[in-house]
What we know:
The chain is α/β, with parallel strands linked by helices and 311 residues long. Helix content is 38%, strand content 14%. It is built from 12 helices and 9 strands. Strands 3-2-1-4-5-6-8 form a 7-stranded parallel β-sheet, with helices on both faces. Strands 7-9 form a two-stranded parallel sheet. Strand 2, helix 2 and strand 3 form a beta-alpha-beta unit. The relative contact order is 0.15.
Amino acid sequence: MAKIIVTGVDGNFGGFVARNITSLTGKENLIFTCPFEKGLEQFKDAGFDVRTANFNHRENLEKAFADGDVMLLISSPFVGPKRQQAHKNAVDAALAAGVKKIVYTSLVNARDPENPSVEKKDHAYTEEYIISTGADYIFLRNSQYAEAMITSYMTAQDDVMVSCQGDGHMSYISRLDCAKAAMYALTKDDLHKAVLNINGAESLTLKQFVEYGNKATGKHVTVKDVTEDEVYASFDAIGVPRTTDGTFKDGSPAPFSSDGMVTFARAIRVEKMSSHTDDFKMLTGSTPYTVSYMFEHVNDFQIGKRNSTDK
């Protein structure tokens, strides 16, 4: 069995993989990393091989990835040149350490030049860079996390969600399912140079998404179609910065920058995020959580806090 490196185990995504991957492979086949020692404590105490690995600092990464065969590269929580450099650092160090395959958490329609999402630029860069190295890879092109929109629904001021995504479609998927897909991808020895769309159970407009929420919770949330500038203003009002270089207000319900979210909504509006496939079922052998189920168990499907990987 291949030796698997799971990065970012202090985060929501990587933590789920780390806590559950032993159902698919033995502890002796696992290496867990994250940027700071504190995030490794629970896994160290449980007897796992743990190492610090901060993608922003290339000099220590090769040692952290030594002896690994397959690495999960979870996209970093910032946007732009800093993230691209961090991903390049991780890929270069992994390959120098002897890693043969990179499993990367990407975004639906990542390399479409007409996709207006600012987030997709970093994903396109990373996919193309990994391909250029000649390494084996699995790109998991995730749909939007349902948790992000569920949190927005539950915290909507006066039960009104302002939106600029119109009637565009998105196959909303739980972050837990995306992490589950990554867990399975890491253990697929027979899957090579693959691009998989990790989509939710059905393709929905935001209004249809909200209807599921109202039915499950008894709330009466509505969607108000507004301009992009008005959406930016609504995020400004709750302390969400325009970019990830800004300062997030303590207690802000949105852990993502507004520039990322508004351009993501624009991409949905012009149907650049409407991918809907059965790749998740093919990979995991199971079906993803439905939006209805997530609203019925709403406390288990909140987006949570933003995790920073550097100061």
